[in-house]
Amino acid sequence: TGASDHKSESERGLRSSPRPASLNRASADEDRFHIFEFVAVLDARRRPLRMDAEVQVSKTMELSAQADQSAYNLRMRKDDSVAMQRRAEFARLKERQNQRRKRRKEAETLKQKEIREFAEDTWRSIKNIMDRLPDYEEEDFDNRTEVINADTSAAIKMEDWRPYFSSPDIGTFKTTLKGANWEVEKLVLQVAPSVVALQSKVGEADHFFCSGTVVESDKETHTIVTVANLVKSPDTYEVADDLKINVYFHNNETCEGKLVYHDFYHNICLIQIQSPVHLLEKGFSSNIDAIHFGKSCSRDVVTLGRDKDIHMLVISTGKIIPKCSKLDCEELVVSTCRISKAEVGGPLMNFDGDLIGMNYYHTNETPFIPGFIVLKFLQQYALFRKVVRPSHGLRVRTLYAEGCNAFEKMQINFRGATGVIIEKIDEQSPAKASGLKEGDIINRVNGVYFSSAVELAAILLDIGARYLSDLPILGQLDDSNKMAIQIKFGLLGCKREKAIVVDKFTSNGLNRWPFPKPIIVQQYINGKKASEEWYTMES
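RESULT FIELD:
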């Protein structure tokens, strides 16, 4: 026991005795090495698990992206050259669209500026007139300003007045033959000497201004065709009294004209002049293709007229459109050209150089009487010194003027339908008892098929010419002549024809030809008229 105790004490003495410093450092380094080795082994064991998880997550994200791309039908941007080319093309188109939008905006801004300047100039002119109007207490009959044809409401709204002979479309007088080639410009210049300006006076007062076309030239005698408004009394279907007509040529020559014939139904009159000046004549064309909308052809046209003051040539371009005119005359066709009131009566020319119409005026459109109607009018007058047309009592309208929806339905129900539809039947006409009804479609007369109201009018003019040629005395009409013309109308889808016995010709007052009434401002100085300006309240 004593020995063991001694051993224990000796062991305890050995353990408790201090160790050298070098041995302590070596032991610590060895311990750290063992710790790092253990951590490295543990990390090596965990690394495959972590890499497997990362790979799994990466594959999951890639599959998700592919699913999204598949859902939206997208392609990888990185290597897809087609997509990059498409994006570049889209960017170019977008840039072009922005440029076009910018140009349109600039053009609209410029147009609005022109309109504002036009309105400001007009208002300044009117304000000057208003400032010249004397007060009632200071009225001086020798130095005064008179306003003619203006009612009270018009006088109150003087800021709404516009120059009477200006075009409704700003910039028309700066129009060139845009889009036309040099050949068309040469054709216009060739026709220009045949276009004249006309002015009528009643007493000393101006009555009407318009343009016209020289259709016949025989040595020093020349015949001009224009609108009958030139000679018509404003309130009746009669020629104005104390009428004087002046004609202005392209070379600034002037001569006096004489009325030789007028027709208020077609609104056509013939003026004859005596002048040593050689004038180029230009006849109207018998071509009807441009107004036959069942045929494929060019409908580009040019209007020609002469300015009121300096009588220069004025032109405007446009197209013939399938639209019914707002005026009464069934024979009128409409073009998109915009003309001033002074260009009324001037010719309408196609791009082949043919005169295919004579222009009239409306605020929102430019109606024209087709050239082959004018041609038949001139031919009948040349033969019989008058023009007649049987009065059947029907008011009709061309089918294509019904509008797209109605015309489409007609084409579906009646394949290839052409002709006219009856809008109204006069109560006292022979057509009332013939069995014809409003809404019926007529496509032939006396076995001759037609496609529009214009062609129907040409057939009726031919019937009138045959009647005059069959008279005992050629073209001689008097009270003893009992007219009885049978006209057979054929209905669409019906072989049987409806016969009408016509006993009279169309009257001058059947068609109305309204024309804006001018507001005339006259200034007198020392009892003499110093100036005269014309205005209108058209929008």
